[in-house]
Each structure stands twice: as C-alpha cells, then as structure tokens.
C-alpha cells in the first residue's frame, strides 16, 4: 500500500469515527433534553470514547463531553434531592465531584462539594431518628470531612455517641462543638449526660460516683438539683464539708435545709446547724426532728 493510499484510508476511518461520534452525541443530547440523565451520561461517555479515536478532529467533542458529563450528573443529583432521595442524591453528587475532578470541571466540583455535607447531615439525622447509631456516626463524620468546623455536626455526633452509650467520644465531640460556635448547646448536652449518670449512681447508692457526676454537671453551669443530690450523697458518705459546699448551690427548700443542718451539726458547727434547723421548724416532714435538735443543741 502506498503512503498516499494509507493516508486516505486513515482519513476515511477518522471521518467514519466522527460520524458515529456525532450521532451518539446527538442521541445523548436528546436523552438529556427528555430528562433522562442516566441515558445522557452513558451516551456522552460513548461519544467521547469514539471521538477520542478520531484524533485531532475529535478533540472538541471530547472537551464538550467532559464539560457536560459532570453538569448532567449534578442535575440528576438535584432532582433526587428535591424528591428526597437523599442516598441517591449523595451517590450522584459524589460521582459529580469525581468526574469534575478528573475532567477539570471546577464549577461542578464546587457545586457538588457545597451540597454533599448538607446531604450527609440529613442522612445522619435520619439514621439517628431511626436509632441506627452506626450509620448516623458515619454520616456525621462524612459531613465533617467536607466542613471540619461545623459545630452543629459535632453537636449531632455527640448526641449520637450518647445515645449509643459512648460517653467518652460524646464528650470529645461536644468539646469540638463548643470550639466551633455551639458552646451553649454542647454544655446543655454535657450537663444532661452527667446528670443522668448522677441519678443512676445515686439510685444505686454509689455515692462517690454521684458526687463526681454532680461536680461535673456544675462545670457546665450550676445546677441546683444536681447540687442537692450531690450534697445528699456526700452527707451519706460523711463528707460533710463537701456536702455543705454542694448543698449551698442547691434549691433552697426543706430537704436542703435538713441536710445542711445535719451536716453542720456533725461537722461541729452548732451555730450554723441551729440556723438551718430553725428554717424547718414548721415543716411537716422535718419539724418534729428540728424541734428536738433545737432543744438538744440549746439553740438560741
């Protein structure tokens, strides 16, 4: 075969390739116009493959396909998002980001990256509501891969860890939530977590654990009820100094006054004991006892 003939045959093959590529490209456009993104993406991928084989003549079509494919994937994702198919939307958004990165589509990549953490957050919330804690934790962590300073994601992650019984991880997540604008909400969650530990410890008569939990609750803001339980626990352990310290932060009611009076008495502070016995002198539950103590201590 002569060189001239070989070149002619080659040019003819390229022309055939471009004819096939153009037909495939146009069919893909029709599918896209009809709203069939899956068929459109398949068609543009095939057109790009054929055009690539056509050499220089196919370069423009290859470029057009690379520009279109991520945008179509993104459109498919937004349609699924609007239909609340969040798992499907996430898959398409991740495909968009991957293809945009491969093809250099900055705009589509940024659009996908902006939506992905919103979708993973929704999926995390849905999993948490369904008590699927493993899935919820995974999705909140995915959110944080895209938005590492998202205080709300750390907050929800902490709540999930509490629900799953992992208090150490919960506290770590809440600490990060506090560092990212969610201090009030995180402190409230931490306070509740330790208050529940306090209640369980007190009920089990594990008074040392109850005291520790009460003090931990108060680290996140003084809690009168926690202080009362902590003070009663300390009194039961005959740690009267600790009992008085906590009870002074408790609700000022007859129960608190009773424990303050007895703690002061047993720690040798008669004057203070008398002060608090007098406060419950007319109380239905503690009045008779207080009257006997006032007489025994010779309170003035």
How large a portion of the residues is in β-strands, by DSSP E?
A: under 5%
Helix content: over 70%
Unreliable stretches (pLDDT < 50, length at least 5) are 1-14
Task: Give the terminus-to-terminus CA distance.
Answer: 128 Å
Oligomer state equals single chain
Task: Offer a few descriptive terms.
300 residues; mainly alpha; 15 helices; 0% strand; disordered N terminus
Question: How is this structure best described in words?
Answer:
There is one protein chain. Among the domains are: about 20-115, no CATH class; about 250-300, no CATH class. About 80% of the residues lie in helices and about 0% in strands. It has 15 helices and no strands. The protein has helices at about 5-35, 35-50, 60-80, 85-105, 105-130, 135-145, 150-165, 165-180, 185-205, 205-220, 225-235, 240-245, 255-265, 270-280, 285-295. Helix 11 (about 225-235) runs parallel beside helix 13 (about 255-265). The model is unreliable at about 1-15 (pLDDT under 50).
Q: Which secondary structure elements does this structure contain, and how are they paired or packed?
A:
Blueprint: H1 3-33, H2 37-52, H3 59-82, H4 86-103, H5 106-129, H6 133-146, H7 151-164, H8 167-178, H9 183-203, H10 207-219, H11 224-236, H12 240-247, H13 254-266, H14 270-279, H15 287-296
Task: Summarize the structure in short.
This protein is mainly alpha-helical.
